[in-house]
Queue: 3 jobs
Job 1
Amino acid sequence: MTFKEIKELIEIFDESNLTKLSLKDKEFKIELDKNISVSAAPVVATPSTPAAQPTPVAATPTTTAPVESSDDNADYIKSPMVGTFYQAPAPDAAPYVKVGDKVKAGQTVCIVEAMKIMNEIQAEFDCEILEILVEDGQAVEFDTPLFKVKKV
């Protein structure tokens, strides 16, 4: 991992709701903790690299995002980080949610991949999905509205 990649990882971590992050590669290990500090140490290489596991991240819904239609009852689930939006846990899997689905607080609605880490985005409140605002595989910025929802 290059210095630039480490710097980008730290910036994404700082902007996220995560408090701890651990990343292990064949040659090194990085641990980030917002309450302590950043550390890097060499690690013994292993023959197989474990697959990245989704990390729960709470989305930050708001009602102030400008969207084409003006529905007074609409809220939004927004991206808490810069990354790539995925509707499903795998390319051949069913999407987490569809338009019209009712979701519970804490339920995973999508994944945002950042620095090869799959971050599960969860609803912070019970809601109904009114519209999916981004395409599968699309790059998203911090605070990009992902879903138009209605609280239930």
Job 2
Amino acid sequence: MWTGAISIWTRVLGFVSAAVITRILNPDDFGLLSISMAVIAIASSLTSTGFSSAIIQKQYGAEKLLDAAWTMEILRGLILFCFVFLLAPFVSDFYNDERLLLILRILSLSFIINSFQNIAIVLFRKELDIRKEFLFTAIPDFLYLISIVSLAFMLRNVWALVIATVLISFFRTIISFIIHPYRPKIDFNYSKIRELFSFGKWILLEGIVAVTRNQGISLFVGKFFNVTALGNYNRGETFSKTIFHELSQTLWKVGYPTYSKLSNDKEKFKKFFLIGIKTITIIGFPMGFGLFFVSPMLVTNILTEKWLVIIPLMQLFSINAILGFIQTPIGISFQALGKPSIGSKLSLWNFIIFILILYPLILNMNLNGVVIASIIANLIVFPIGWIKISKILNIGFLEFFSAIIPQLIFSIIMLICLFIFEKYFYSMNSLFDLILSIILGISIYLLTILISEKLRLTTFKDLLKNYIS
């Protein structure tokens, strides 16, 4: 419940702030921020320690590693600040935009600010104290909403985004010490650092691959097309992929510490794995198909017509998210079972395939080709992960797919009904129609579940009982 509250709170605030600033600012502003944040994210991933994941996965004595982890984070933050500060002129010259120089140097301050964040916050996730994690997330997000909306109205340019990004780092660091009593100290204990890194190295590799792919796309789009195209890509991603990402992160917050505690009991692990995959798909699948349908209305009525170009991008991101929902519990399981190398290798192969097919697709499909390349790469690699986790947990083929097929069928039925309703009964265009289509979609989806339960074709009641018990 608390994790769901975090997700809803984050998405509502995120959607409100994104909608407001998207109406005020221009594609160029978001393009500049995307390039800058891509550089920041890639630099961060190249030095990601994975220590937080290691602390959560460790069954005993994790608290003894906190000081060493915090010390390494501070050292990492100082190095990254210097690196990006010095790199900024080269990035500015590469994109032939002098604004990037100061933007990157200001954003690099967030490395130092974030590095001092209280490392003990990770114990909230480890101990499933989600109530406190909600407070740690909710307060900075609310302050960020106030900051970015106020700055957008006052400045009306990219600096509203830059200043708000640095401010949220400051908010989170201050609140991390208010909300947790632990006070970390400098500790350069080599044996502790080595113990953390033995697990974290695979998290590092997977993080490098993921961020290089995701943020590398932003850098590529900004250079191959232009900053305006990148701004459109960024907004298409924000109003689709980012929404779905929050659902996946919710499962990570609960699933990873829970799965880690069950890593020595394969039967219970298998049970909770199937519960996890049913849970995320029963919510995620209708969200993905639903956004595919309402994207034109959402863009026209909320973001204004200057953003019409992002509609196909949002729809493609929705399709890609549907595949991602199936993969999320699998990625969590590899890490919780102490096998992060599997997920890292699969991510690397996914990235290689994506690179190989990217260029020919963008030549034929322009900006949409970037997302289509990602969909194809996922379709090729994701089944390998499904097969591997099935073998590890001894899950049969039918058992695995019976956990996701009903939700997929019901979501497709919902989508077909919405298209039929729009074509033959009522043309949906206005803001009222957007709300109506959401209510109608939810109603159709829930009705199909109720009919299925009545006919005993599915057992969603058992899933609900698991949560209640």
Job 3
Amino acid sequence: MKIATYNVLGLTGYPPQEALSEVGPLGSEKHIDHFVRVFTELDSDIIALQEGVAVRQIQQVAKRMGYFLATHPSPIAWPGHVLSRFPILESRTFSHADPCVDVPPFSRTAGASLVQINEGERLWIVDVHLHPGDVELRKVEGEVLRERVEALLIDTPNVVVLGDFNSEVDEAVHEYLRELGFVNAMQQVGGGIQATMDTVGIQTHYIDHLYFSPQLATHLVAAHVVRSDGFRHGGPQSEGCWVHSDHLPVVAEIDGHFA
């Protein structure tokens, strides 16, 4: 089974002015068809997205792919989505607006989706997008995330925490997950952490990650950052040159039954 995480920049492509001129306006038939092809190319059973789009748009994508869908709203403007070949039994949202706080924890998005793999096999997919600029707020988000994940582990030991962490693996949120026994897929079976933002014109960042709970980690067999045509280009930036997003997807594969 393959599981992917991908920050999709609102399905605008990057840079948007180049991409949208070719694939058409947001929500158009051509635009939806394009991103159906993009997600299909990932060849993954579960795809978690960050910086998503309005529910009706992603529903069209999911329907054309034949995937189940859960959406986690954003308190501001960046919903998350989980596309799954397997039924989604339940979803929980961790990101909520606070009338007393301009930027609450998980101001981008955070939530969990319970996926039924088959009879007796379920797993939680925890899709997060942490704050991009505030280290202390990311620490708070990490503390909340740890509490939520501990609760999910009581339900099933099969938990994947993935998404745009906006941080490298030396920050608190990563340490919290390691304390719970979670394993970073790229470190375990992908040859080490690799950049997930390094397209021309973007600073290099190592910020998109997949973490697997201890039971699932024993079934990890492979992980990689997707760098194929359309996902990444080395530049130089020129008219008509664009990619699907400013981030690169990360895909991990697990093997065998894990109930």
